[in-house]
Design a protein that fits this description.
Bound molecules: 4-nitrophenyl phosphate
Number of helices: 6
């Protein structure tokens, strides 16, 4: 199966998943890969908001523009995206509960499973209650996994 769309999901959709969305969009464009990318949150607390200012600043320093508006994941997302990718085990658990069918459940993935330079790291940890170094680390992980995901999609291995 060749993947043509990926939805990134985290808890609030203001830190990790909009960053994954922005990083993947830029890297896919640079790689000439035509793929639909979006992000959403498990919770609805931040719906309509831009990403957290700390993540936007972190991204800006690396040449990204994180300008997604937060939204909550819906049952329709499981029809509209080939792959639904969570950031940590709690996201996976919540997505599994939200998936409308067993087939939809089978298309849920964990972003950390695609890490190459950070193999062994089991999740993209939530930086929300952390400091600048936690945001930088989350972005390091997101860039690492995104490079690997693009390679695998190009080879038809995802
Ligand atoms: P995210 O970070 O899941 O990476 O967007 C969070 C943002 C907000 C909250 C939790 C995590 N919150 O509890 O409001």
């Amino acid at each position: 199966m060749s993947v043509s769309s990926i939805l990134f999901v985290c808890l609030g959709n203001i830190c990790r998943s909009p960053a994954a969305d922005g990083v993947m969009r830029k890297k896919a464009e640079e790689a000439g890969l035509d793929i639909k990318i979006d992000s959403a949150g498990i919770g609805a607390w931040h719906v309509g908001q831009l990403p957290d200012a700390r993540m936007r600043q972190c991204g800006r320093k690396r040449g990204y523009d994180f300008s997604h508006r937060a939204r909550q994941v819906s049952a329709q997302d499981f029809e509209q995206f080939d792959i639904i990718m969570g950031m940590d085990s709690q996201n996976l658990h919540d997505l599994q509960k939200a998936a409308p069918t067993a087939e939809a459940r089978s298309r849920i993935r964990l972003m950390a499973d695609y890490l190459a330079a950070h193999k062994g790291q089991k999740s993209i940890p939530d930086p929300y209650y952390g400091d600048e170094s936690d945001f930088e680390f989350a972005l390091d992980l997101i860039e690492d996994a995104s490079d690997e995901i693009i390679k695998l999609v190009k080879k038809g291995m995802i």
